[in-house]
Amino acid sequence: VPSPTVADRPENPLSRSAFLLAARGEPGPHTPVWFMRQAGRSLPEYRALREGTTMLESCMRPDLVVEITLQPVRRYGVDAAIFFSDIVLPLKAVGVDLEIQPGVGPVVAAPVRTAADLAAVRPVTPADVAYVTDSVRQLVGELGGTPLIGFAGAPFTVASYLVEGGPSKDHAKTKSLMHADPKLWHALADRLADVAIAYLSVQIEAGASAIQLFDSWAGALSPRDYAEFVQPHSAKVFGALEQYGVPRLHFGVNTGELLGLMSEAGADVVGVDWRVPLDEAVRRITAAGGSPKPVQGNLDPALLFAGWEAIEPQLDRILTEGRSAPGHIFNLGHGVPPNADPEVLHKIVQAVHAKSTR
Ligand code: 1CP
């Protein structure tokens, strides 16, 4: 049970946040909604602001970070903001030579494949990311009663970019390294756990009221490999953050077989993609003997293009299935696609609120 934080003081408007209440498994005014990748290319105001500035440059400019993070909050009335950044930013901040290529994603100039390559990876200090502290402080001031979610990439997902050198469908080099040189793998994953801990601590200390650890690509692993090679490192991250008492969310894609293990890693809220219904997700989380936890999800992002008549019954279904958890945070099963229609997202927020108001 997270210990009381500043958000729990009754005079703080965050104490009534639907998002934070659901994340703690407490009853709230309605089912909260936010969208992964809610800030980004689906918003014309984002595309206009980003013109002429690279992705990583924009992450280092508090004026842009603050405005881009606020854009979807204003437009959609979502119940939480997610800090505008990227999972590779802390690596960039400690000098790893990488860029985010438009239409591709993160690309690493010198992939990490040997023990000597590990020297390039060290945890960020607050001084490395002073612009993150500035941005979070400003945002928390502007957001008032809307909580800010900080985030980091989990060791496996960040390792995949470092080892592969860029986006990968099969994560073959990463999995090979794991099995061929477990000692090097564990050393790398342990370092990346320290990176995530340092980077998330900076965001929480600057005022983020929840954090999400993205292990987007963990679903590529078997439960056996996840348990041996990944879970201990993600558990280290969650364990180190427990002292702050902020809700810790955990998410990955295609993780139906891993939901119990990802929950056991130390998540307070388990993110679920669209492949497993939320009531079944709750069963899988509790099957290993754990207690039921709040869940987040799980509308298939492809349905954003199916028309309102197809979307609305799915909202009803997801809200019903979500009631089997002690708390439900409505979200998509993965990020907002770049060509999504902002009007549809706005309508979803309004409908989820209307249907769930208690
Ligand atoms: O120029 C651009 O607009 C680049 C597109 C973009 C954006 C908007 C990238 C490149 N990253 C981001 C921001 C971002 N990244 C956010 C904040 C925005 C929000 O959520 O509202 C977050 C939370 C992330 C985290 C992130 N980056 C993840 C985890 C979440 C997920 O989608 O699974 C991952 C896997 C990345 C890597 C990444 N960064 C960018 C791309 C295109 C990718 C994926 C590449 C791949 O397929 O491997």
UniProtKB/TrEMBL annotation:
Read off the PROSITE patterns from this record: UROD_1, UROD_2
Reactions catalysed: uroporphyrinogen III + 4 H(+) = coproporphyrinogen III + 4 CO2
Q: Which GO terms describe its cellular component?
A: cytosol
Q: Would you kindly state one Gene Ontology biological process term found in this protein's UniProt entry?
A: protoporphyrinogen IX biosynthetic process
Molecular function terms, GO-annotated: uroporphyrinogen decarboxylase activity
* Pfam families listed in its UniProt record: URO-D
Q: Where in the cell is it found?
A: Cytoplasm
Keyword terms of this UniProt record: Cytoplasm, Decarboxylase, Lyase, Porphyrin biosynthesis
Summarize where substrate binds, as residue positions. Answer: 37-41, 86, 161, 216, 334
Which intervals hold domain Uroporphyrinogen decarboxylase (URO-D)? 32-41, 149-165
Pathway assignment reads: Porphyrin-containing compound metabolism; protoporphyrin-IX biosynthesis; coproporphyrinogen-III from 5-aminolevulinate: step 4/4
What family does this belong to?
A: Belongs to the uroporphyrinogen decarboxylase family.
Q: What does the record note on quaternary structure?
A: Homodimer.
Q: What function is annotated for this protein?
A: Catalyzes the decarboxylation of four acetate groups of uroporphyrinogen-III to yield coproporphyrinogen-III.
Q: What is this protein identified as?
A: Uroporphyrinogen decarboxylase
* Native source organism of the sequence: Kribbella flavida (strain DSM 17836 / JCM 10339 / NBRC 14399)
